[in-house]
Amino acid sequence: MGYRFTDLIDACKPEWRAYIEHDFVRQLGAATLGDASFRHYLKQDYLFLIHFARAYALAAYKSSTLADLRQAHEGLKAILDVELDLHVGFCREWGINEDDLAGLPESRATLAYTRFVLDTGNRGDLLDLHVALAPCLIGYGEIANWLNAHPATLRGEANPYDAWIAMYESDEFQGAMHAEMEWHDTRLADATPARFEALTRIFRDATRLEIDFWQMGLDQAD
Ligand SMILES: Cc1ncc(C[n+]2csc(CCO)c2C)c(N)n1
Q: pLDDT digit string (tens) for 56-93?
């Protein structure tokens, strides 16, 4: 008893490290990532974000307190009003226009990950859903920090992916990440071992699907 969010990471260490330190991340940090791989990733991430917005709408539906409902609403607004606009701008800088985005076929990795999150939320409760979302929300912040601590990482104009790292190292994003970890800490504090084990399975599967998402980008897979 008395679990914390970091216990989920500790329970899934090999998968978590494989996600945080994936070749896609390493190459992005070292500025050796092929631009076609990055473009493929950006396009699929547009589809990912749309389903992620739906997951926040599901979180609103699964909320039983006003505080949780407001949190889900803020998350949905942040994706629709900020993240997606930023992402479309980012895509434009990489030569992908809105018409390209509108007609995109969805890759298997995008399909598997996003529908896993939505299904987990549908059949479970709000905590199950947040645990399925956690590798995304918390992992990207940790990736930015890991890249900054890694000697092979290039920052500034020497790296065309610098703006991507900057987005996730920002105080705003790191603050949101810590707030999410605290939310988990509060909910996990009174989880039973059986409940924690069920949540660990969700966390591990979502992390494995994040690994597949990086690999899909690297391989430009459909
Ligand atoms: C495959 C994939 N996984 C995680 C993220 C990161 N991410 C997506 S939405 C969001 C915050 C929403 O307010 C964050 C951190 C991504 N872009 N793509």
A: 999 999 999 999 999 999 999 999 988 898 899 989 99
- 44, 98, 99 from 103: Cα distances, Å: 11, 9, 7
Q: How many domains, in total, are found in the chain? A: 1
Give the structural domain span for 42: 5-219
Using the atom order of ligand 1, give the atom closest to the CA of residue 139.
Answer: 4
Ligand 1 pocket mutation, candidates 90, 140, 165, 181, criterion most atoms within 8 A of CB: 140
Distances, alpha carbon 178 to alpha carbons 5, 6, 92, in Å: 11, 12, 30
Q: Kindly report the average pLDDT of the chain as a whole number.
A: 96
Condensed to tens digits (0 to 9), the pLDDT of residues 112-163 reads 999 999 999 999 999 999 999 999 999 999 999 999 999 999 999 999 999 9
CA-nearest residue, atom 3 of ligand 1: 136
User: Which residue has the CA at smallest separation from atom 17 of ligand 1?
Assistant: 45
